[in-house]
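Narrative progress, year one. The postdoctoral researcher (J.K.) led the effort to move from monomer predictions toward full complexes, under supervision of the PI. The following entry was the first complex the group processed end to end, covering 344 residues in total.
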Amino acid sequence: MKTLVEFIWEQQSISSQATGEFSRLLNDIGIAAKIVNRDVNRAGLAGVLGLEGTTNVQGENQKKLDVLANNEFIKALRNGKQCAGIISEENDEVVVFDETTTRNAKYIVAIDPLDGSSNIEVNVPIGTIFAIYRRKSVGSSITMEDVLQAGTELVCGGYIIYGSSTMMVYTTGNGVNGFTYDPTCGIFILSHENMKIKDPGNIYSINEANYIYFPEGVKRYIKYCQEDDPSTGRPYTTRYIGSLISDFHRNLLRGGIYIYPGTKKNPAGKLRLLYECIPMAFIAEQAGAKASDGFRRILDIKPEHIHQRTPLFIGSKSMVEKAEEFMATYSPEFQEVYEKSEKK
Ligand code: P6P
């Protein structure tokens, strides 16, 4: 039995440059995750269901648990003093921590504190997605150079899924490992070592209610998934939970593809690049999977602004590549449309 803390220290001892700050930062995230897990599991009893009565920068109605989770992660990271600030889905601007104590902090964190929160009331798994970047401007205040970094610069990408069991899954570029939370003793324990995606899978996850708005390439790919061809395991089965973390986690364990495409109305789709797609793409690639916007590798996309959105095609490599083939054949114009939408 190896705990998360033991695993982090072990990884630190292997790395020649490690000085302990990253280990403490990851541990701070683990502490906040335990508190959010407690509140999520008692949501119906703790009076934290329902709307906060405010909207976030995305124009979405904030749930009480969205705000609570955001505050818990900000508090844990601020008190931990290992990062200079955070970019959060729930905050319009970068949250800069007290400069006197964090000016020399090496890291900055981008976070979606509670993804899929529309599912809270109906007991569907939700989660936290986090990305840890090394700062470019250590020794001075946070700059946009620290904040707007491509995924190829990522130090760590991870998520916590508050499901039938709570798990933390993360990578620092040396494979993907999953830790299951044992609430009886309050520790995360290594349960899924060196996770690798099944390829091909036979699950496709997409909200087909938006079918008429999809690019032709996505429509054709959906029909391809539904064709009767036992030699390629088709027809696939469709699973769509409405919670990116849950759909991704299932596909990571079983193989499959999740698609949230752009449309003519919303060319960049719905998901955010910095604190949803980049960390999930880092995990995907480390698990032998693939993540793109239908044309470009997600990790190569340089963010233009902190709440930038991007289409997302993520999962088993052969399935993502087949979907990309359909996009290139039937919707090549979308590549330019996506790239233009980033400039807005
Ligand atoms: P739709 C949750 O709001 C989220 O960001 C993802 O977790 C989820 O996959 C997607 O949006 C669901 O969006 O438009 O299908 O309801």
